Amino acid sequence: MDFTNNKNDFENTFTFESSSPPKQPAPPSPVEAHKAKYKRNSLPRNAEEARQRRIELDAQARRKHRDQLITTKRFKHNLEEYKDDDSEPEYNLSQKDIEKLKSGLNNVNRDARLSSLQDLSKYLVDPSDILRQFVIEGDCIEILIKFLSSIDPAEQLQATWCITSMSIITFNILILNFTMNTLFILKFYTVSLNEDIAAGPKEFVQKASLAIPYLIPFLERENIPLQDQAAWAIGNIAIESSECRELLRKNGVLVPLINLLDSKDVNLIQTACFALSNLARGPNAKLHEFFTAGINNRLIQHLETDESFEVVSEVSWVLTYITSDDDNKYTDQLLNEGIAPLLVKHMRPLLNHGPLSLPLVRTFGNIASGPDTNTDHLIRQPDFLPSMIQYIQSDCRPVKKESLWVMSNITATRRPEVLVKVFNAGFIPILSNIATHTNFDIRKEAAYSLVNIASHGLEFMKSLPHQELLPGFLEFIRTSSGENVKGIDAIETAILTEDESLRNAASRLMDKYFGEEFSEQMQVQIEETT
């Protein structure tokens, strides 16, 4: 449908009138406006306000759900450590082995100490019970701190490796138990997500946090491997809890970590972004400290100059957390500093790189979930909507789903002129096809955009292909959502991993239990009924 030739009629049809008297009182504070949405006696003044409130409340709930899925426990690991298909610990150490290890760590011979540190780092990847006891109840961390405070860079590096390994051991156990193609494993993974598995056992991370005062100075050393490993360990510790992040901030981690973004080493920049993204997570991230330290200028600089897909992806992960601020303060600052065209610039280059594009899409979704002025910044970019059409048809399922979430935020705008651009860009046939022919949860994401469009008035409602959409919407009414048990979320998280065998196993589960074959069966049942 083309609205461009009847602009006057369109504007007359979609004029949003206020029921308030001409003289308006001072607008409520953001806090008061937010609280008003939840007051029992906060009745809408007119149909438009009621419609917009429903859209906003729904968007908030869906955004919270996406926060839990996309931003949950992202930590850095070494894939070479994860090769065994057995879920039992690779190193079934005895007390005698632990004593031998301690002897090596305290050996007067440097090579023997380094060898023992390397062994300990490997053992910590998937620790046996006796090693767990050594870490939690023994003097393991005290020995490692002794190496961190030494003057030998090689020993410092190996000890930092051990600290890093202490914070990622659960991931290895988890992926090894996800390789069987059964619903039992699906249930196990779902429970793991709901319980919010830490990067490592809580006691391990508590021990690792004792090394924080020794790790942070390494960030300022002119030793790239040591800087990288220290940032890696700090990033993994930061995942565990808001208390860990607060401890890191109190020890002055932000300035030296943000300064690493000035490095010429691509890997170091990625690791620094990884650590910063984990420090910026959560409701009490104290983002003002990040901006005081100059993170905005560094991120913008990398978006302007970097062509590395990996760097752009990691920068976008940082932005994913920054743009999730509730009051839109820092999102607004970044938009005013010109970040929108820089983000859009990277859309097409990242399009065919699967999960690497996910944080970029997620950032767009966060921006669009804010005030309509945020959406305006995106819509003004000539290539934004044409690129989004490609993204909602992505072969990477999580990217496709997130892109549809972006469009649901775009179409939730109060401004009909934005919807005109969505129509004229060709979204309606594609959204309609997705809403009726793909997987159930994907269809539901597309349906949100169509419902938002229809809610803007009769003219938009009449433009939708009702005969095509009706069977699909009847199915939504009759079918229980598979998302209620979080199974789809669990598998999608596994699809995003770097481990190829795990990705393949997760894809098989998705195809078998949540794929189009299941959706087609449901469609046949609906058609027979109607």
- Structural shape: elongated
How large is the radius of gyration?
Answer: 26 Å
Q: What's the structural domain tally?
A: 2
**Would you identify the CATH architecture of the largest domain?**
Alpha Horseshoe
Unreliable sequence segments: 4-45, 79-89, 169-200, 516-530
Alpha-beta content class: mainly alpha
CATH superfamily of the largest domain, by name, is Leucine-rich Repeat Variant
Which fold name fills CATH's third level, the topology of the largest domain?
Leucine-rich Repeat Variant
Look at the structure and give the CATH class of the largest domain.
Answer: Mainly Alpha
**Relative strand content:** under 5%
Termini separation: 28 Å
Instruction: Compute the number of helices.
Output: 34
- What helical percentage do the residues reach? 55-70%
Mean pLDDT: 76
The main pleated sheet reads as:
none
E-strand count: 0
Describe what this molecule looks like in 3D.
The chain folds into two domains: 46-71 and 333-530, Leucine-rich Repeat Variant (Alpha Horseshoe), CATH 1.25.10.10; 79-264, Alpha Horseshoe (Leucine-rich Repeat Variant), CATH 1.25.10.10. The two termini are 28 Å apart. It is elongated and about 80 Å long. The longest helix has 24 residues, at 47-70. By secondary structure, it is mostly helical. The protein has 34 helices and no strands. Residues 1-51 are annotated as: Disordered. ARM repeats lie at residues 252-280. One of its GO terms (molecular function) is nuclear import signal receptor activity. Belongs to the importin alpha family.
